[in-house]
């Protein structure tokens, strides 16, 4: 049977239905069922909805206050009558009158919730489930939190068991007839779903328990139907395999009819289970009541164990995995026990590989749970995983479990001892008696002692022995084997043989390493050999002297070969392929070993320097020789620096190292212009690494004597590094003949470009290059966001902490560069291009980086606007044309929302004075869109009063009304009021409003962008209609040849601002008070000093 339709979707897990919903009279009725013979009393309609305008009789439909005794309820409470008999009697009543029978069952669940109300026949026929539950809720005695499931006194102690048994018995008795009558199951599931969505805890708790037990019973029925289908299929296949003369008459037709009936039953059961799962489980597994969450997890574990074919899937397992993080002890404990039932069988465990890999870290961490009983069950679960899933738990995972054997909690230590025994002491899982018969106790104690000595976790061996007593008591009581171990004496001869064997093995290993280095030239093999020698040369090892000798002998062979081939390389004008390959392979081996081993005693700097110098001078050195030679120079300088930094040194050593560093940097700078991209890339990497290693931090923390080694790149070198980034990182193009299926190669190339970019960004962050040099990186933040966005954003944040003022100037410089490039390409039509919109988007992203600290950002933002205005107006035209760079004001307007109210007024005044000083009187009369946009972003309006005063009439009247109503900021605000969320079924519904704004993440850039997007979409629609009023000639020429006067355009602009009030939500009262406080404080002497006219540069005009 396929139950894939039961898999919950993300929407089901993130929303809950309205408490007033009737569950749409069952979500699961997706297909029309085959009609069956109705009961003798005829089909009873399921509570039809009232027609519009129909009038019901004026009668009281409220629940009765003095209910009649309910036979089902009294039988379950007393526990004196067998529930099979009670259910059979109820079935007889139901078959005679199913409405009466169902009402008795419904009132049983109502009474089980502790409610004394009764659902009458009139209520059942006239009202929806939500209305019935609402009336029952109003009549419910909320002054007491006690209800049958919450009571533990004598009459109610076994009520929970009776309720669960009743539901199971009911389904079991009805599974062949009444369960498929399209009334009982539908109506019962609908009732329980409505009750489980109630605000009353008693309703929710009891109905969830009943629904989950009903689901468990349906799963058992579905499993039985599935088995019947398989048997039917086997019978059909066997009958069909018989000859025509041997078949029973109409046997095949009978089997086909049975199969069809079984399939229909299976489909109906699937629909019932689907309704319960989506209507109850998906919402209640995260209920606020821990008992309800535990019920859901416990029953889901049963479904997966009994019917694993349908329920043991990742779509259902994820709920248990999520609930492992529950804050309540009982819920976590229930999840662990449910998982133990699944991992206890190897057949089910192998089907949980994806779940195990996803939640293994959480299960391992629960070993240290603050609740000891939860930790015990976690260790037991991991023991089952160890037994039934091979190689799932890594050595690192097991290392976190071993120390628990020393825990003071006895049960926890015993569980960990069982795990330790299964993993280390008895990995094959052999019977302990068999091990005793073979005399393997000796091996057991050797392993146990080795663990105790190597762990170094505890001094008390008693804890370790006690933890193993339950699982390995027979081995621990083998006193004869322990006596033999205690009487053993170590043999000198044995130790000598062991030492000799170790020496032979070491010689064999060193010989194999040398052979691998001599025969192979692959980078991975050489790096592995280099690391192995580095580990074996550890001074703490007793044989490190022999390994050091073998390493020195190997390096001698490589350097001798290199020195022999060097003269021919430097003197010959032509080399054959064999000579080039031999030289390249030798240098490659030396460069890789130079990374992990100090090869400065072999004095390889000068020979390698000659090779690189000749390559720069003549270009005759092959690339495969040049690159490892540059690498050798790089590591040589770093090892020299390590020697000087490690201890005392003489000044001549520093000067000699300075000479080598300068020589290497000069050669690498020359190689940046090489024709081979790989040489350029290697030179860039070495330069960035050396500039970082020999940066300003080298002469800090007591190393002032090394100040002469500090490298300070000049403007030319910084420009070359930035140019390399532009050519090889940002403007990189895929080769035309690149294989489209070579995704791995493209990913590796992307990672390499990211490493190149990170090298330059580190120079910026560590103050090696000027912060302004990062403008070439920052301007690609949006364009290359998918590939390098994380690196550039981190660089932006780090640069802001270095120098906030210089950081702001660098952001502005990036935008200036982009606009200048755009103007060079498109001229005055640049503003209408797609690239201009990208520049504005970049400015918007930059504005978000200023964060919520307005006081700290005030000087930076004011300086940014001031310099931006100067840039936009610095190239005035003698004609009526707008300044060429005037569109930059639109870009600058993206930073206006970050300004404080007083700053907006001062910036607006500075803008007006700048326009008067730079523009001619004729130009000042022109209306240019960028200038209007920027002015509007700085103006202060009062949206509330403007909206209140807006009425039909002329634009002039509205403008006068606005002028007399004060001013407030009409720009987009970061802390805008969010819309009130839709009330769910678990929210108390009433007349009180949601007056408090929702909290928002001030540091979330994505949230702000998303909130602005919805506003921008509406404003963009109005902007399009506005552009229909403005002639294209004005948009293209910023006022050239326009007959539109300034007065009419200002009226349209004010109309647009009034419409914006409808879109932009009002700020909260706290923000209003804060803004007023800022305005008041702006009149103080401190703010007058900060925003003095001399600071804004007004005196220059």
From TrEMBL:
<feature type="coiled-coil region">
    <location>
        <begin position="248"/>
        <end position="275"/>
    </location>
</feature>
<dbReference type="InterPro" id="IPR039662">
    <property type="entry name" value="Cohesin_Scc3/SA"/>
</dbReference>
<keyword id="KW-0131">Cell cycle</keyword>
<keyword id="KW-0159">Chromosome partition</keyword>
<keyword id="KW-0175">Coiled coil</keyword>
<dbReference type="InterPro" id="IPR013721">
    <property type="entry name" value="STAG"/>
</dbReference>
<dbReference type="InterPro" id="IPR016024">
    <property type="entry name" value="ARM-type_fold"/>
</dbReference>
<dbReference type="InterPro" id="IPR056396">
    <property type="entry name" value="HEAT_SCC3-SA"/>
</dbReference>
<dbReference type="GO" id="GO:0003682">
    <property type="term" value="F:chromatin binding"/>
</dbReference>
<feature type="domain" description="SCD">
    <location>
        <begin position="281"/>
        <end position="366"/>
    </location>
</feature>
<feature type="region of interest" description="Disordered">
    <location>
        <begin position="939"/>
        <end position="1035"/>
    </location>
</feature>
<comment type="subunit">
    <text>Part of the cohesin complex which is composed of a heterodimer between a SMC1 protein (SMC1A or SMC1B) and SMC3, which are attached via their hinge domain, and RAD21 which link them at their heads, and one STAG protein.</text>
</comment>
<feature type="compositionally biased region" description="Low complexity">
    <location>
        <begin position="8"/>
        <end position="22"/>
    </location>
</feature>
<dbReference type="InterPro" id="IPR011989">
    <property type="entry name" value="ARM-like"/>
</dbReference>
<keyword id="KW-0539">Nucleus</keyword>
<keyword id="KW-0158">Chromosome</keyword>
<comment type="function">
    <text>Component of cohesin complex, a complex required for the cohesion of sister chromatids after DNA replication. The cohesin complex apparently forms a large proteinaceous ring within which sister chromatids can be trapped. At anaphase, the complex is cleaved and dissociates from chromatin, allowing sister chromatids to segregate.</text>
</comment>
<dbReference type="GO" id="GO:0000785">
    <property type="term" value="C:chromatin"/>
</dbReference>
<keyword id="KW-0132">Cell division</keyword>
<feature type="region of interest" description="Disordered">
    <location>
        <begin position="1"/>
        <end position="71"/>
    </location>
</feature>
<dbReference type="Pfam" id="PF08514">
    <property type="entry name" value="STAG"/>
</dbReference>
<dbReference type="GO" id="GO:0007059">
    <property type="term" value="P:chromosome segregation"/>
</dbReference>
<feature type="compositionally biased region" description="Acidic residues">
    <location>
        <begin position="1051"/>
        <end position="1061"/>
    </location>
</feature>
<dbReference type="Pfam" id="PF24571">
    <property type="entry name" value="HEAT_SCC3-SA"/>
</dbReference>
<feature type="compositionally biased region" description="Low complexity">
    <location>
        <begin position="967"/>
        <end position="978"/>
    </location>
</feature>
<dbReference type="InterPro" id="IPR020839">
    <property type="entry name" value="SCD"/>
</dbReference>
<feature type="compositionally biased region" description="Basic and acidic residues">
    <location>
        <begin position="999"/>
        <end position="1013"/>
    </location>
</feature>
<dbReference type="GO" id="GO:0051301">
    <property type="term" value="P:cell division"/>
</dbReference>
<feature type="region of interest" description="Disordered">
    <location>
        <begin position="1049"/>
        <end position="1083"/>
    </location>
</feature>
<dbReference type="GO" id="GO:0034089">
    <property type="term" value="P:establishment of meiotic sister chromatid cohesion"/>
</dbReference>
<feature type="compositionally biased region" description="Basic residues">
    <location>
        <begin position="1015"/>
        <end position="1024"/>
    </location>
</feature>
<protein>
    <recommendedName>
        <fullName>Cohesin subunit SA</fullName>
    </recommendedName>
</protein>
<comment type="similarity">
    <text>Belongs to the SCC3 family.</text>
</comment>
<dbReference type="GO" id="GO:0000775">
    <property type="term" value="C:chromosome, centromeric region"/>
</dbReference>
<dbReference type="GO" id="GO:0030893">
    <property type="term" value="C:meiotic cohesin complex"/>
</dbReference>
<dbReference type="Pfam" id="PF21581">
    <property type="entry name" value="SCD"/>
</dbReference>
<dbReference type="GO" id="GO:0005634">
    <property type="term" value="C:nucleus"/>
</dbReference>
